Amino acid sequence: MRGMRIAVTGSTGLIGKALVRSLRADGHEVVRLVRRPPAAPDEAAWDPPRGYVDPAGLEGCAAVVHLAGAGVGDRRWSAAYKKEIRDSRVLGTAALARAVASLAEPPRVLVSGSAVGYYGDQGDRVLDEDSPAGEGFLPSVCVEWEAAAAPAHAAGVRTVFARTGLVVAGKGGAWGRLFPVFRAGIGGRMGDGRQYWPFISLHDEVAALRHLIDTPALAGPVNLTAPEPLTNREITAAMGRVLHRPTLLPVPAAALRIVLGEMAQDVLGSQRARPVRLLESGFVFRHPLIEQALRAALTAED
User: What is the pTM of this model?
Assistant: First the structure.
């Protein structure tokens, strides 16, 4: 597709940086929405708590990709930080959706971030985009997060919710914390290891986001995960094989609850989510297998 003007929030995060780099490499103009005074020609201001978005940053955009939000695993979940997690997603999405809807010529598509945390702990049940929301803090956040984009949808903007799994990358995100532990030979399964972890390589995450932009038939929730999720036990074994390290030191569930508090339920929760809509739309994964995703991360391919 010819060069487009695309606005991106969360451009300093793991996924956002990789997406901006990929878009620009293919000749697209990227406007980065930043929560500080703009310091470069490609930046525009927005202030989610105040509900403000500089309309000049959105004018002429064919697409908006919204990835901003406080890191779920950045710190222990105090009441204050849970509010920050929720507000950073819900208020930011609402502000952006209202701004998009107010434009005389709105973008064709809003790709709004979400997460497989929407489904909560579902055990062995196979999940697709029609599966109901689970119970607990993260599912409730995801429900509000997606609902906040309603103004854009009501204005006729194709709105897609990218329900992303655990992104496999060498630096940043969950795997940025896991790799050093496993390299040191002290990695192991978490809890009983039977919980499903829906993973996706960073390369495939970026390619999937671009696929959502470019595929008019896609709207609503789309799972961004590898074709077959694996259990934590299976992923732990794969980490050991790829890194040539032992994985004999399990982390008991009780210890996780002591160290992580309420966030432990997310680590121990199981989402056997499959990317049904992504596959049906013709998307082809470069790294469908966990070993491929791990090796790509380790070689900084992405």
Answer: 0.94
At 27-79, the pLDDT tens digits run 999 999 999 999 999 999 999 999 999 999 999 999 999 999 988 877 777 89
Would you give the end-to-end CA distance of the chain in angstroms? 22
Identify the pLDDT of residue 247: 86
What number of residues does the chain have? 302
In the chain, how many domains are there? Answer: 1
Taking the C-alpha atoms of residue 238 and residue 201, their distance in angstroms, rounded to an integer, is: 14
Distance in angstroms (rounded) separating the CA atoms of residues 261 and 123: 20
**Phi, psi angle pair for 14, to nearest 5°:** -55, -55
List phi, psi (to 5°) of 112: -110, 130
The domain that contains 102 carries what CATH number? Answer: 3.40.50.720
SS3 222: strand
Q: How far apart are CA 75 and CA 81, in angstroms?
A: 8
Mean pLDDT of the chain: 91
Domain containing residue 221: 5-298
Distance CA 204, CA 5 (A): 22
Distance between CA atoms of 149 and 110, rounded to whole angstroms?
9
- Distance (Å, whole) CA 55 – CA 182: 46
The residue type found at 10 is G
Whether 39 and 45 have beta carbons less than 8 Å apart is answered as: no
